[in-house]
Amino acid sequence: MNLTKDIEAKFKKLGVNSWCELALNIPHSYEDLTLHPKIEISKPQLIDATVESIFRSANSIQITFFAHNLGHSINGVLFRPKPYMMHQFKVGERDYFYGVINCNAGLCSMAMPRKTTSVGSITPKYKSALRSDVMYRLIQKNLTLEVLLNEGLKESVAREILSLHFPKTLLNTKELDPKSIDALKYLELFCYMRVLSKKRRYFKPLVSVESEFTSWASTLPFTLTDEQIQTIEDIQIDFSKDVASKRMIVGDVGSGKTMVILASAFMMLPFRSILMAPTTILANQLYEEAQKYLPNVKSVLVTNKSRKLDLSEYDFIIGTHALLYRDLPDAALVMVDEQHRFGTAQRNLLEKIVSEGELKPHFLQFSATPIPRTQAMIETAHIDVSLITTTPFVKNITSKVIHKSDFKDLLVHIKEQISKNNQVLLVYPLVEQSEFLDYQSIEEARSYWENNFKNVYVTHGKDKQKEEVLLDFRESGDILIATTVVEVGISLPRLTTVVIVGAERLGLSTLHQLRGRVSRTGLQGYCYLYTNQSSSDRLERFVDTVSGFDIANLDLKFRKGGDLLRGATQSGSQFKWIDLAEDEEIVKSVKEDLAPT
Question: How far apart are CA 95 and CA 74, in angstroms?
């Protein structure tokens, strides 16, 4: 797109980078500058008139017009006129004037008439960083069907958008017809995804492998789900291509992402794989699973406490961010678990460490935070996405919103669970007391639980010992008091109940992650959402929803989409027209139209 310096400067001022982004700036209103033979009361109207007389007073100018198109005399009034207005009206001259006409007892007047030369058209008015007339000329001169088609926009959408900038009839921007709104939704998403798809860079892989995983899958003591198999097959195809793969695997809590990780390491043999996890506990769990289900693969665990090893002796290196500070051997595959827990810089660094110039390892990211299908479809503009929406076994978790009046019943339930050798998690919103929050903090609440129950453990985000506390609790605890620090990570097989205090303060996806901590081994689970609010539609909807992907869609409805990829705004919509919770068909259409041919 070759732009003149003048247009470049205007684009910069408007904050747009392309003609399709400019086209999204539709008029906020329109002026009808066509001549009509009848007076339209209280509406702006054009007259073809001769100035018959002018009377000036201290604060106004009064003008008598004869409007030829209406066959009627009209009095014009200018209040507190500016100097330039004085020169617009000369007795005896015939010109076009525009303003709102009102009539009373046969006398008609036009308030603040202005002289105009744009006659015979519907003229759009713009609100933008540019002056209205400058914006008008920029669009009138440059925005054409050819320009929009060259941007890759399909013709039906381009024509609909142009009809908003070059209308044949007077439009009301507050009541656009559905066809125009769909075109604006399409255009908005098209501009966004087009930029994304350009961000995707393709590199040659360190190795391409033709591999299989069925011989390994047949050794497992269980059957992989259809979606696990589909995801592994996606990765299998990625590995065989002459392009380094970049894929994100999104699976709900307990959907079996670990098996996809192990299958990927198996398929990459005889070449080496590296996996980075956010905590020692999680890295250790993954290492234990690798030893169990990949017994013939030489695996090693690397944490801050690991002694210096010759890592080149191993096929599968599993570790925390401690990996970033080791000399790592060549690896053909890099995987990052719970990718959102690492900064972009950390993820990129791991990939970079094992790259060789322009040759890159295959790169897989795993996330347990389900995202709406529409978001996944958008993200595929610059990264491949696999969704695992089902779980190997259906969890049996009862969810309920509770209040102060339910506390006695809650205590009975907690005692009952402990008597069955089950564990309970209490999640508090804050570590220390806050004058702004009408919920107890951990520090305020802990003495009650410690005085009334045995084996109570406490941890939170600032606790340097939190991993040890969680491990101790797993072995010998009854009650764990924590903040949302336990949202991801450690597996607690005996945990059956989670109580979330001040639940309305948390996003639905966080509530879902916390609920996912219980019933990991098929036990009956319970999730209690404690709130001081008398009612909450959001929490009631959450209680009735089990799938993380449905939760993500609910979250989208309640919070709006936020900035999906730049991550700057987590909620509040960056889109004006498109509704990601509702407009899946439009997202699908844009994605298909942008797909490389």
Answer: 14
Q: Which tokens in the block code for residue 321?
A: 């961010």
pLDDT score at 571: 37
The pLDDT > 70 percentage for the chain reads 89
Question: Sign of the CA dihedral 163, 164, 167, 172?
Answer: positive
Distance CA 89, CA 307 (A): 91
- The rounded distance, in Å, linking the Cα atoms of 313 and 304 is 19
Residue 490 to residues 132, 264, 274, 282, 472, Cα–Cα distance (Å): 58, 22, 21, 6, 12
Beta carbons within 10 angstroms of residue 206's beta carbon: 19
In which element (H, E) is residue 356 found? none
pLDDT in tens, 341-353: 666 677 677 777 7
| pTM for this prediction | 0.64
pLDDT tier, 369 (very low <50, low <70, confident <90, very high otherwise): confident
| Distance of alpha carbon 14 from alpha carbon 2, whole angstroms | 17
Q: Are 332 and 206 in contact (CB under 8 A)?
A: yes
276: phi then psi, degrees, rounded to nearest 5 = -110, 130
Nearest residue to 239 via CA among 354, 356, 329, 334: 334
* Cα 184 from Cα 190, distance rounded (Å): 10
Between β-strands 204-205 and 94-104, what pairing exists: parallel, antiparallel or unpaired? unpaired
pLDDT given for residue 299 in this prediction: 95
Looking at the chain, how many residues does it have? 597
Task: Please give the single-letter amino acid code of residue 424.
Answer: V
Each residue of 476-489: pLDDT tens digit?
Answer: 999 999 887 665 45
CA–CA separation, 114 and 88 (whole Å): 8
